[in-house]
Design a protein that fits this description.
- The protein is α/β, with parallel strands linked by helices.
- It has one domain (35-62, 75-228): Rossmann fold.
- The chain contains seven helices and ten strands.
- The chain has helices at 48-55, 78-88, 104-114, 119-132, 148-160, 178-195, 206-209; strands at 5-16, 20-32, 37-41, 63-68, 71-72, 89-93, 166-170, 198-202, 214-219, 222-228.
- The strands form two sheets. Strands 6-7-8-3-9-10 form a six-stranded mixed β-sheet, with helices on both faces. Strands 2-1-4-5 form a four-stranded antiparallel β-sheet.
- A hairpin with a 3-residue loop joins strand 1 and strand 2.
- Helix 3 crosses helix 4, helix 3 runs parallel beside helix 5 (148-160) and helix 4 packs across helix 5 (148-160).
- The longest helix has 18 residues, at 178-195.
- It is globular and about 50 Å long.
């Protein structure tokens, strides 16, 4: 079987005071099929966010390989990694990471503008994505004029504007109340089911993890359990 993502013998460590080596990911192996929705769980320090960053090419492993469509993406040059991130990955973070001084529309259009897309075309695409995520009519507002849930939807729209093959979400509901969080997760769920986008989501909340089709629990940089979720919400 050709997997969308294959991770082989991945190892990542950091050095404390440039002396003490602290392993974070330990010889981890993982295979992900296209269209899966993975929930990564584990206590603080288990390595789940580090694993997400390694897959998203925001960090580099000490050892091991990550294959995307059978290509070893750990061997790519920095500019090639940046191009891959911009064209095929969508990132959603707990802190929204929106630019405060520009409009919702410009925030969403920004990844396309970075790709060199003409501003008018980028904004048209951004309008379509905002409409699909329930934010039609909010284009000209600033991020601080929106609720937390609305800001996260803007972040999701920004991730979607490039038509990504993979969305990487790190605690995307961490700053939201339970009702708003549930609404955001339903958006992720629908994107996975309808658009067949592969999603890898980090969470420490069991209720949030249940939206995934597969739940992986980590501890001390290794996979503890990896189960298909028959109770997907």
């Amino acid at each position: 079987m050709n997997f969308f993502i294959q991770i082989k013998n991945l190892y990542k460590s950091y050095f404390q005071n440039n002396i003490i080596e602290i392993p974070v990911i330990k010889d981890l192996n993982l295979e992900i099929k296209s269209g899966e929705f993975l929930s990564l769980m584990g206590p603080s320090g288990s390595g789940k966010s580090t694993l997400l960053n390694l897959i998203g090419l925001l960090d580099h492993p000490n050892k091991g390989k990550i294959f995307l469509n059978q290509e070893d993406i750990t061997k790519l040059e920095s500019n090639e990694k940046a191009l891959l991130r911009n064209q095929q990955f969508g990132f959603v973070f707990q802190g929204f990471n929106l630019l405060k001084r520009i409009s919702v529309l410009d925030n969403v259009a920004l990844p396309l503008i970075y790709q060199g897309v003409e501003r008018f075309l980028a904004q048209n695409r951004a309008k379509d994505v905002l409409k699909s995520t329930g934010l039609d009519g909010f284009e000209n507002r600033l991020p601080n004029q929106l609720s937390g849930g609305q800001q996260q939807r803007v972040a999701i729209a920004r991730a979607l504007v490039v038509n990504p093959k993979l969305i990487l979400a790190d605690e995307p509901t961490g700053n939201l109340d339970s009702k708003t969080a549930s609404g955001i997760m339903k958006t992720f769920y629908e994107l996975n089911i309808k658009n067949k986008i592969t999603i890898i989501l980090v969470t420490h909340e069991e209720e949030i993890a249940q939206f995934g089709s597969r739940i992986i629990k980590m501890r001390d940089g290794q996979i503890l359990t990896d189960v298909v979720n028959s109770q997907t919400l």
